[in-house]
């Protein structure tokens, strides 16, 4: 014998909602856990979960009175909720249809003039060749960038500034050496030797 298939969540929801409609009463969770298995075949362990999904979907109302939480539902409320959901879904469908129509129109406009033809294929081929040539020329131009007059002019300015800076430091070294000679009576060669100053040290021409 094949094993009996259990109820799906949607089947349990439908049956539990039917129980509310048939009884037209207020229930505690414990009461539903006792009644639902007998009258609707819903296991008591799953009643709480199924009930919560109905409450979340606004199909079952709930309220706390004192320390007890009661649940109830009426057909008119369920019908109103379903009608509201249906209206929202209908509005969403209409909005999606409008967007689809608008997108289709834009797509049609974008494709206008792009129909496949020998002329279009030839133009696209020529465009690709020109893009390739342009890229090659840019690469070639980059090789000669250092010969650019503006680049050379900037390099000349930087060279002059570097030369002036080097000579300033050379002047500072000579000034300090002169001070040491006067102050301590040291010879130039001794100062050069102790501070690692080469004999050819001089201003940059």
Automatic annotation (TrEMBL):
Q: What does this protein do?
A: Required for proper homologous chromosome pairing and efficient cross-over and intragenic recombination during meiosis.
| Coiled coil start-end | 79-147
- This chain belongs to which protein, by name? Meiotic nuclear division protein 1 homolog
One Pfam family of this protein, by short name? Mnd1
Alphabetically sorted, this entry's keywords are: Coiled coil, DNA recombination, Meiosis, Nucleus
Taxonomic classification: Eukaryota, Metazoa, Cnidaria, Anthozoa, Hexacorallia
Where is this protein localized, as stated in its record? Nucleus
Similarity remark: Belongs to the MND1 family.
Query: Which is one GO molecular function term here?
Result: double-stranded DNA binding
Reading the lineage from the top rank, the first entry is Eukaryota
GO cellular component terms?
A: nucleus
GO terms for biological process, alphabetical: reciprocal meiotic recombination
Q: Where is the Leucine zipper with capping helix domain?
A: 150-204
Residue ranges annotated for the Mnd1 HTH domain, each copy included: 16-75
